[in-house]
Amino acid sequence: MATFLYKLGRLAFRRRHFVALIWVALLTLAGVGAASAPPAGNSSFSIPGTEAQKAFDLLEQRFPGQSADGATARVVFKAPSGEKMTDADNKAAVHATVDELADGSEVASVADPYKGNAVSKDGTVAYASVKYDVSGMELEESTKDALEDAAQQARDAGLTVEIGGDALQAVPETGATEIIGIAVAAVVLVITFGSLVAAGLPLLTALIGVGIGVSSITALASALELGSTTSILAMMIGLAVGIDYALFIVSRYRAELAEGREREEAAGRAVGTAGSAVVFAGLTVVIALVGLAVVNIPMLTKMGVAAAGTVAIAVLIALTMIPALLGYAGRRVKPAGAKGKRFGRSRKETEQSEDRPKANLGTRWASFVVRRPLAVLLLGVIGLGAAAVPATSLELGLPDDGSQPTSTTQRRAYDLLSEGFGPGFNGPLMVVVDAKGSDAPKDAFTDVEKRIKDLDGVVAVTPPAPNKGGDTATITVVPDSKPSSVQTEDLVHAIRDAGGDIEAKTGAETLVTGSTAMNIDVSEKLNDALVPYLVLVVGLAFLLLIVVFRSILVPLKAALGFLLSVMAALGAVVAVFQWGWLSGLMGVEETGPVMSMMPIFMVGVVFGLAMDYEVFLVTRMREAYVHGETPHQAVVTGFKHGARVVTAAAVIMMAVFAGFIGSSESMVKMIGFGLAIAVFFDAFVVRMAIVPAVLALLGKKAWWLPKWLDRALPNVDVEGEGLRTADERGPGPDEDRELVRT
């Protein structure tokens, strides 16, 4: 592989005009496609294999036309203090609002609260339900303006009016902190390279790669039913890995220049060595993201595949466009250590300093770790274990209007409905009774209604509403607890258990659906899929790393270290978003259950990113070991050459991820924080402390590989041994430590 990538790097350096033209053309094509693509509708949220999805599909079949995915709105009214919604003036204001809403061009129906039993018992709160012909993302701005104008007229009449539902759904915004994250990345690059030109290359290529990826997602969003969150997550991951991959290749290029090689040769060698690590690191990320398909949730699969595509683009750009841009930059990208006066010491001063015994920080830290490996290992493991303790209290759920900031009208409408009708009113359960196999359908409907009324935690049960055929009926159940509570989850299971007894007696099947039941089923499905997902992703990556490192214990250590960092990161997420620690600093206005998709998505992404640092750092150690150094010397050498760059890469990735904490979308905010803290734990605790400590303790055993397996594995030559000349190879290490097959 190193030889192929070496040739590719030299070709891209020589044919830089052609390479640059290709990428600019792809960016232009993707941009035109995004600009001309139809607007994306709501992403389909189907959960195959769950009872809630089965009931939803049955509703579409037995109640045609009544389960359309059109947008909905709840206009909630509250009477002034001392008044009631049944007072004549307030009633007139509500009727005027309902009449105005009914005139909308995209409105399917508006329910009068006084005819639909939508006034609270104390008479202070009422609501009007509005249904639209199109989804929330497809509503015209004029329709949304008409909804808000109608609410404002009722406010002018003295009522408190808020609007819930998805009719006012907006595309999530990431906020200014995203720009701050990129700015921090730029500063780190300038400090690392000491050159504005060298620092600009990773940023430029990362932005081009993300531009192509996100534009392609936007162009295909309507056809593939991709949600707005998909492009944001692809941007988040694409920016982070795009900058990091380019950083490693540019850094290796400068190191090759410092050894006196010509620029084209240096570009080829940089791509042949660091590029090999980029390919395998990118492959682990892609495996982790595409592996999300095993969960069998289409939305999560699409998010993973879209993000994986952006990562693949980042790898290709790093291997081709970086050497092309290095060709354009020429002498403006200086050899390692040859910083200008504005940014640091000159190369001459650096060479003089190398004659002195003082070592760099990475070397000093690695020397300390190999002298006290057990103490460092225990401290790192105990620290991560303590951070992971909150994860034992992890509660999962999906967001609703109750998780919105209190400044939003959706959240205020949620609170008004809870105040007037009880907390469970915001998450009613829909029970679907399929009596097609029953001899007495009406009796079955009545039995289900009675059984549900007798259950604990039920506030109200509506009479069965049968379809035209009379073989299926829907029953609405209002719990006495909020949608995301454990009590509501227990009630869903109790209804399903009761349905099993009814089916045995009457032959009628009882199913529970609705957004609340769907959220519960999603959380359970994700919990059940977590272990198989871990086995698949970690297993495939473990095999891949065996090929890369030609070792058994090093990949095993990498996987165990990842588990430590991801558990610590989950603990931090629980502490902030569930317990409320530092929630004000993170902009978390409402604590609650952790997003049900968060753990499995974070596991996939963090595993891929963790392997990045493992590959980049440990390949340097292996390179030193196979070239004759002792195991302890190899650890120190690996840190001497790689610690500075890996540190810069981790800080950049943390800055990019942290930039998305300012998003208005709670899922993006949570994932941004989770990934940022996970990178911190993995890069600075696991890879910088636990990894060298373990390698120091294992010694030569770390690089042990059975001879039969060594012969069976392909030689991918990540270290670039095939690129070394006979003079560079020298006499070579002893045969008992020679692990590279020629």
Could you please describe the fold and organization of this structure?
The protein has helices at 2-14, 16-36, 51-62, 88-102, 141-156, 177-193, 196-224, 228-258, 263-290, 298-329, 347-354, 361-371, 373-388, 409-421, 441-453, 486-506, 515-549, 553-578, 598-626, 631-658, 666-698, 707-712, 726-729, and strands at residues 72-78, 107-110, 125-132, 160-165, 396-397, 429-434, 458-461, 465-466, 472-479, 509-513, 594-595. By secondary structure, the chain is an alpha+beta fold. Strands 6, 7, 8, 9 and 10 form a five-stranded antiparallel beta sheet that branches. Strand 8 and strand 9 form a beta hairpin. The longest helix is centred in the last third of the chain and has 35 residues, at 515-549. Residues 340-357 and 730-742 have low confidence and may be disordered.
Backbone shape: elongated
What's the helical proportion of residues? 55-70%
Q: How far do the termini sit from each other?
A: 13 Å
Low-confidence stretches: 340-357, 730-742
Helical segment count: 23
Count the E strands: 11
- Biggest β-sheet: count, sense, barrel? 5 strands, antiparallel
Strand content: 5-15%
Instruction: Indicate the radius of gyration in whole angstroms.
Output: 30 Å
Q: Structural class, judged by helices and strands?
A: alpha+beta
Mean of residue pLDDT values: 82
